[in-house]
Automatic annotation (TrEMBL):
GO terms for cellular component: endoplasmic reticulum membrane; mitochondrial membrane. HAMAP family: PLMT (MF_03216). It catalyses: a 1,2-diacyl-sn-glycero-3-phosphoethanolamine + S-adenosyl-L-methionine = a 1,2-diacyl-sn-glycero-3-phospho-N-methylethanolamine + S-adenosyl-L-homocysteine + H(+); a 1,2-diacyl-sn-glycero-3-phospho-N,N-dimethylethanolamine + S-adenosyl-L-methionine = a 1,2-diacyl-sn-glycero-3-phosphocholine + S-adenosyl-L-homocysteine + H(+); a 1,2-diacyl-sn-glycero-3-phospho-N-methylethanolamine + S-adenosyl-L-methionine = a 1,2-diacyl-sn-glycero-3-phospho-N,N-dimethylethanolamine + S-adenosyl-L-homocysteine + H(+). This is Phosphatidylethanolamine N-methyltransferase.
Length: 237
């Protein structure tokens, strides 16, 4: 944010002196001062380590456990026929841990690592709005898929008879990931946090890589063993 103060002095008739003082602070220092920029980038890198790890580990967690269950049925053997429901709770808790780590990182970075792009009131309203829309989109997806469809039920042997094309799937191919990323962006915008913006981008990239190279091929292998009337189920949050 740049503040300009203009002072008018007239110590001599017909002589006007203008003094302009520009005060720059906060996150804008990153773009105008080499020394603060170096410090800020170092601080940004340090604060991103834990939340980035949490994002990657959560995605790796549900991909690895889904494939382990598919190959060994270990969770079903231990927990019985309702294993998929216990597993759903486990994934929700895993996501909650991820979100807590992200929230802590954003809070720890404020107010130093802020990028004020909107007035505070507007950023708060829009941020909360995006967060709520993201959560509602995830709940809509859960309603369309059910618990088994949302939380790797296909890896537990609960294969769908046909792909889900109703509800949020009329708009997005992976609405649960869109919802989670949108909620993350809303939280970042509400705080106008550079860390939040960076983590939103990272989350979207990690989700895309997961769908493209891990989840997609895994689901294709699962459903290739069913009759052609069956097809790929949707994925989890």
């Amino acid at each position: 944010m740049i503040h300009v103060q203009v002072h008018l002095y007239t110590p001599i008739p017909n002589l006007i002196t203008w003094r302009i003082r520009v005060m720059i602070w906060g996150s804008c220092t990153v773009f105008f001062s080499p020394v603060p920029q170096q410090r800020t980038m170092s601080a940004l890198a340090a604060v991103l380590v834990a939340p980035l790890a949490a994002i990657v580990l959560h995605v790796a967690n549900y991909n690895a456990t889904a494939q382990i269950e598919h190959k060994t049925r270990c969770f079903t053997k231990i927990l019985g026929a309702n294993a998929v429901y216990y597993y759903a709770v486990y994934l929700v808790l895993s996501a909650a841990v991820r979100d807590a780590v992200i929230h802590s990182a954003i809070e720890a970075s404020l107010p130093e690592l802020q990028w004020i792009v909107l007035p505070v009131e507007i950023a708060t309203i829009v941020g909360y709005g995006l967060f709520v829309v993201g959560i509602l989109l995830n709940l809509w997806t859960l309603h369309a898929l059910g618990i088994k469809g949302m939380y790797n039920g296909d890896s537990f042997g609960f294969l769908m008879d046909a792909p889900v094309t109703s509800g949020p799937y009329t708009i997005f191919s992976d609405p649960q990931y869109v919802g989670t990323t949108l909620a993350m962006f809303g939280a970042a915008l509400r705080q106008q946090s550079i860390v939040g913006y960076a983590l939103t981008l990272a989350m979207g990239i990690v989700f895309w890589i997961s769908v493209k190279f891990i989840e997609g091929p895994h689901l294709q292998r699962l459903y290739s063993k069913k009759p052609s009337s069956s097809s790929k189920s949707a994925k989890r949050q």
